[in-house]
C-alpha cells in the first residue's frame, strides 16, 4: 500500500511567523515507516518526494500517486534509496538488488515496477528520495566500498563525523538527485556546522540511529531568523533553499541528506559562520 501527503512551499517572511506547531506541520515528517506500507510526502520544494518503505511480512509495491499524473511512479522521475534497517531486497523491473544497512540504490527514469521486501527477521527500512528527471540513467547500487568517504570535524568542536557520498555525480549519473549519509562519532553531536544555505537546491534531512530517549534539535530558517525542531529517530525534515540546515543531538546519531534543484555541485553553498547566526 502506498500512502501520500502534500506540502506547499513557504515564503521565508511568512515562515518567521510560524509557531512550534506550524513549523512542525509544514516541515517535519514524523511517520515514514509503517508496517507493510510505503509513505510519501510530495513537496513543492523542487518537487522532491520524501518517503519510507517498511516491508515486514509482505512485499510492497511503489505505486504512482495522483500528483504525478503518470501511469507509473518513475515515468518522469528518478529515485534514490538508502536502507537504514535489516537486509532487504529491491526489485527493479525484475532485477534484484540486495541492500544491507547504509547501502544505497539509484533507479533511473522510466522504470515501470519497483517492489520492496525484507530478507531477514529484522525488517528493512528503505528511505526514499525522488526528484523529477529529464532522461534515463542506469540503475546502480552503491556500497561503502565505492562511496566517496570524507572525514570531517574535530572532537574539540563536538562535530567529528564521517561523510559518505553515495548518490552523487562523482559516483553515479543522475539528473538532479544527490544523496549521502553522515555518521557522528561517539561523543560528537553537531552536524553541518558551520551551517550554510544553497539557493539553487533544496535539501531534506533524515535522522536515524538516534538512541531511545534521545533527541536531535534540527536548526532551520533564515540565518538571521533561525528556528528549531526537536526530532526523534527515523524522522525527516524539509529544508528550503533559503534555510540553513544544521543539528545537534543529545547523543551521537546518523543522518541522510538528500538534495534536488538546479545543479549537481556539492560545494555550491553559502557558508554562515557560527557567530553570525541569530
From TrEMBL:
Pathway the protein acts in: Glycan metabolism; pectin degradation; 2-dehydro-3-deoxy-D-gluconate from pectin: step 4/5
Gene Ontology MF: a single term: zinc ion binding
Residues given in the record as Zn(2+) binding sites: 196, 198, 203, 245
Listed NCBIfam families: PRK00924.1 (NF002091)
Protein name: 4-deoxy-L-threo-5-hexosulose-uronate ketol-isomerase
Cofactor detail note: Binds 1 zinc ion per subunit.
EC number: 5.3.1.17
Signal peptide as annotated in the record: none
Keywords: Isomerase, Metal-binding, Zinc
Gene3D superfamilies in UniProt: Jelly Rolls (2.60.120.10), pectin degrading enzyme 5-keto 4- deoxyuronate isomerase, domain 1 (2.60.120.520)
The organism's place on the tree of life at top rank: Bacteria
Purpose: Catalyzes the isomerization of 5-dehydro-4-deoxy-D-glucuronate to 3-deoxy-D-glycero-2,5-hexodiulosonate.
Spans traversing the lipid bilayer: none
Amino acid at each position: 500500500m502506498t500512502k501520500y501527503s502534500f506540502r506547499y512551499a513557504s515564503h521565508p517572511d511568512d515562515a518567521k511567523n510560524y509557531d512550534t506547531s506550524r513549523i512542525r506541520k509544514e516541515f517535519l515528517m514524523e511517520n515514514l515507516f509503517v508496517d507493510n506500507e510505503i509513505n510519501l510526502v510530495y513537496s513543492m520544494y523542487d518537487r522532491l518526494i520524501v518517503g519510507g518503505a517498511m516491508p515486514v511480512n509482505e512485499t510492497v509495491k511503489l505505486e504512482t500517486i495522483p500528483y504525478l499524473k503518470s501511469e507509473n511512479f518513475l515515468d518522469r522521475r528518478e529515485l534514490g534509496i538508502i536502507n537504514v534497517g535489516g537486509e532487504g531486497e529491491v526489485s527493479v523491473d525484475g532485477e534484484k538488488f540486495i541492500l544491507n544497512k547504509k547501502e544505497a540504490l539509484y533507479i533511473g527514469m522510466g522504470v515501470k515496477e519497483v517492489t520492496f521486501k525484507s530478507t531477514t527477521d529484522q525488517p528493512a527500512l528503505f528511505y526514499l528520495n525522488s526528484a523529477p528527471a529529464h532522461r534515463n540513467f542506469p540503475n546502480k547500487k552503491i556500497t561503502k566500498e565505492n562511496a566517496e568517504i570524507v572525514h570531517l570535524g574535530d572532537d574539540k568542536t563536538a562535530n567529528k563525523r564521517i561523510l559518505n557520498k553515495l548518490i552523487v555525480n562523482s559516483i553515479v549519473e543522475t539528473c538532479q538527485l544527490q544523496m549521502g549519509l553522515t555518521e557522528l562519532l561517539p561523543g560528537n553531536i553537531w552536524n553541518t556546522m558551520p551551517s550554510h544555505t544553497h539557493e539553487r537546491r533544496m535539501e531534506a534531512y533524515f535522522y536515524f540511529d538516534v538512541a531511545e530517549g534521545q533527541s536531535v534539535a534540527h536548526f532551520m530558517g533564515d540565518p538571521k531568523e533561525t528556528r528549531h525542531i526537536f526530532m526523534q529517530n527515523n524522522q525527516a525534515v524539509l529544508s528550503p533553499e533559503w534555510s540553513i540546515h544544521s543539528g545537534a543531538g543529545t547523543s551521537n546519531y546518523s543522518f541522510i541528506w538528500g538534495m534536488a534543484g538546479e545543479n549537481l555541485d556539492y560545494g555550491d553553498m553559502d557558508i554562515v559562520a557560527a557567530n553570525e547566526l541569530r
